[in-house]
Design a protein that fits this description.
- This protein has 20 helices and eight strands.
- By secondary structure, the chain is α/β, with parallel strands linked by helices.
- The protein has three domains: about 80 residues, Up-down Bundle (Four Helix Bundle (Hemerythrin (Met), subunit A)); about 180 residues, Rossmann fold (3-Layer(aba) Sandwich), CATH 3.40.50; about 120 residues, Signal recognition particle, SRP54 subunit, M-domain (434 Repressor (Amino-terminal Domain)).
- About 0% of the residues have low confidence.
- The structure holds guanosine-5'-diphosphate (GDP) and magnesium ion.
- The site of guanosine-5'-diphosphate (GDP) has 17 residues, from helix 5.
Length: about 450
C-alpha cells in the first residue's frame, strides 16, 4: 500500500488543506488494499467513507506529504475500528466461581488448541485453577487431544467417560468444577466443517446448561471473508462474547479482523500465533492495523507525522508568545509538559536565564503537587476565563477555587505566575531567546 500511495501522492504537491479530489484518489487505493487484505466489500466501503469524512479538509502539515497524512488518518481509523470499545482485550469475565467459558467454532479453527493455550494463560498469569472438558463426541481422538495437551501444560481435564452426550459432559464438568474447587471450567465443543442446524442446536443446549460467562468464538484468521459469515451466524444463534483469531502467524493479511469487528461488533480478545502452547497473545489493534496496511515502516511513518504535527503546534504557540499572548490554556499546556518532563526544577533549569528562578521556586516549596493543583485550578475555569484570565474578579475567583477544592490565595498566585510568564516570554521573544529556549522544551 505504501508504494501505491507513494505513486499517487507524488503527483500531489499542493499544500494547504487536503482537497476532496486528493483524498478520493488516495482512498481508491486504500479500498483496493483493504480488499486485497481480505476485508469484505461492504466493510471496506464503510471504512473508506469514514476516512474520507475525516481527511477532507484536514490541514496539511508542512513536512509530511499529503500521502503520509492520509496514511496516518487511515491508520488511526483502523486502530479505532479494531479496538472498538473493549477497554481490556485480554481480560475475561471470570468473576464467578466456577466461571464457565464456552469455546465454539468450526472444525479445525483451533478450538482445542486455543482452549489449552487459554487454560495455560489463566493458570500461569492469573493464578486460576482451571478444569478443561472436551465435548467433542464426534471424533474419539479429539478428547484425547485435549487430555494430552492438559498433561503437557499441567492443567486438569475432566476424565473421559465413553458414550456420554455433549450436554451430559457439560453437566459433569460443572459439577466437577464446583466440587473440585476450580475457578474456571472450559468447555471445548465439537465443530463441523460448515455451520449446520445440528451443530448450532448442540452448542445452544450446552450453553443453556453451562450459562457461560464468556462464549469465545474461535475463527481461523486465514479464512478472510468467510470468517465474518461464521461469526455472524454463531452470534445470532448462540450469542458470542468475544473472538479469538487463530493462525495469525500465517500469511493472511488480517482483513478478517477488521470485518469481524465492524460486522459483529464483538471484541477480538486474543490472537493465536502458532501451534505451541505459548503462542497466544492479547489482541493488539496496532499490530493488525500495520498488517492490513501491509507496510513494515508504517509505524515510523505515523510517528514522524505525529512529531511534525507537534513541532508545528509548538511553533504556532511560540509565535503567539512573542506577541505577548499567553493565556491560561498556554499555561496549562506548559504545566502539563513540566509534569511530563520530570517536574518543574529540571524544566526551568533547561531554560536560559531561569536557573535562579528555578532555585527560588524550589526553595519556596514549589514541587509537582503544586503543578497538579495549578492544573486543577485551570480545569475549574470556563473556556472564556481560560482565554481571558483578566476577567477573573472576586466572585469568579471564589467559584474557581471552590471547584478545585483550593483557596483563592492559591489562585491569585497562579494568576501572578501567568502574568509573569507572559511578560517573560515576550521579553525572551524579542531577543530571539525564546526560540532557543523552546527548542529545548519540545
Ligand atoms: P479444532 O478442530 O477447532 O479443535 O482445532 P484444533 O485446535 O485441533 O487445531 C487444528 C490445527 O490447527 C492443529 O494442528 C493446531 O496445531 C493448528 N493451530 C491452532 N491454532 C493455531 C495457530 O494460531 N497457528 C497455527 N499455525 N496453527 C494453529
Ligand atoms: Mg477440537
Amino acid at each position: 500500500l505504501s508504494e501505491r500511495l507513494g505513486g499517487v501522492f507524488d503527483r500531489l504537491t499542493k499544500q494547504g488543506a487536503l482537497s476532496e479530489d486528493d483524498v478520493r484518489t488516495a482512498l481508491r487505493e486504500v479500498r483496493v488494499a483493504l480488499l486485497e487484505a481480505d476485508v469484505s466489500l461492504p466493510v471496506a466501503r464503510n471504512f473508506v467513507k469514514r476516512v474520507q469524512d475525516k481527511a477532507t479538509g484536514a490541514a496539511v502539515t508542512k513536512s509530511v506529504t499529503p500521502g503520509q497524512q492520509v496514511v496516518k488518518i487511515v491508520h488511526d481509523e483502523l486502530i479505532r475500528t479494531l479496538a472498538g470499545d473493549d477497554p481490556e482485550p485480554g481480560k475475561l469475565r471470570i468473576d464467578q466461581v466456577p466461571a464457565p467459558i464456552l469455546m465454539v467454532g468450526l472444525q479445525g479453527s483451533g478450538k482445542t488448541t486455543t482452549t489449552a493455550k487459554l487454560a495455560r494463560r489463566l493458570t500461569e498469569r492469573d493464578k486460576k485453577r482451571v478444569l478443561m472438558a472436551s465435548l467433542d463426541t464426534n471424533r474419539p481422538a479429539a478428547m484425547e487431544q485435549l487430555q494430552i495437551l492438559g498433561r503437557q501444560i499441567g492443567v486438569d481435564t475432566l476424565p473421559i467417560v465413553p458414550g456420554e452426550t455433549p450436554v451430559q459432559i457439560a453437566r459433569r464438568a460443572k459439577t466437577q468444577a464446583s466440587l473440585g474447587g476450580y475457578d474456571v471450567y472450559m468447555l471445548d465443543t465439537a465443530g463441523r466443517l460448515h455451520i449446520d442446524a445440528e451443530l448450532i442446536a448442540q452448542a445452544a443446549e450446552v450453553r443453556d446448561v453451562a450459562n457461560p460467562r464468556e462464549t469465545l468464538l474461535v475463527v481461523d484468521g486465514l479464512t478472510g471473508q468467510d470468517a465474518v459469515n461464521v461469526a455472524t451466524e454463531f452470534d445470532d444463534k448462540i450469542g458470542v462474547t468475544g473472538v479469538v483469531l487463530t493462525r495469525m502467524d500465517g500469511d493472511g493479511r488480517g482483513g478478517a479482523a477488521l470485518s469481524m469487528r465492524e460486522v459483529t461488533g464483538k471484541p477480538i480478545k486474543f490472537v493465536g500465533l502458532g501451534e505451541k502452547m505459548d503462542a497466544l497473545e492479547t489482541f493488539e489493534p496496532e499490530r493488525i492495523a500495520g498488517r492490513i496496511l501491509g507496510m513494515g515502516d508504517i509505524v515510523a511513518l505515523v510517528e514522524k507525522a505525529q512529531q511534525t504535527l507537534e513541532a508545528e503546534q509548538a511553533e504556532r504557540m511560540m509565535k503567539r508568545f512573542q506577541k505577548g499572548q499567553f493565556n491560561m490554556n498556554d499555561l496549562k499546556s506548559q504545566l502539563e509538559q513540566m509534569m511530563e518532563m520530570g517536574g518543574m526544577e529540571s524544566m526551568m533549569s533547561m531554560m536560559p536565564g531561569m536557573g535562579k528562578a528555578a532555585k527560588q521556586m524550589a526553595d519556596a516549596g514549589m514541587d509537582d503537587s503544586i503543578l497538579r493543583r495549578q492544573i486543577a485550578l485551570i480545569n475549574s475555569m470556563t473556556k472564556t476565563e481560560r482565554a481571558n484570565p483578566q476577567l477573573l474578579q472576586a466572585s469568579r475567583k471564589k467559584r474557581i477555587a471552590a471547584g478545585a477544592g483550593l483557596e483563592v490565595s492559591e489562585l491569585n498566585k497562579l494568576l501572578k505566575m501567568q502574568r509573569q510568564m507572559g511578560d517573560m516570554m515576550k521579553k525572551l521573544g524579542k531577543g530571539g531567546m525564546l526560540k532557543r529556549a523552546m527548542s529545548g522544551m519540545f
